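Just scan my protein:

. . .
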Amino acid sequence: MKPLVKLILFFGLFILIFGCKSTTDNLPSVYVDYSLDLNKPEYYSLNTPGNYIYITGGLAGIIVYHDLDGSFKAYDRACPYDFVTDGARVYVTDISLGRASDTVNCGSVFSITNDGVVIKGPADRPLRQYKTYYYPNSNVLQITSY
């Protein structure tokens, strides 16, 4: 009976290790460290909650969003479902609903007001979110990957 138990445990462990789909981020890691002076004209729209801008950086660019609750959020524009270096970018498609999507390449829609979660599509992971730190005394927003 002991060999049968060992065999069952072995196959159970094998299936557990190799049979489960990984839920980890499939996007390559990149270093991000930006400071945006919100007094500068190119970033001034971020002073108003509900606005967003695109900046370079990350894998496919970054969406910087000033949420209606006053917080700032920053997401990589690379689709976590089917990242392709050329042309696969998420765009804000309906700011009134806080949605961003890439319907051409990855066929998914994400919520930028709710931590980049998937609303629709084959993507099963949220957008990669970067950390944001706002310094009100200097009106500077820092975006980092660490």
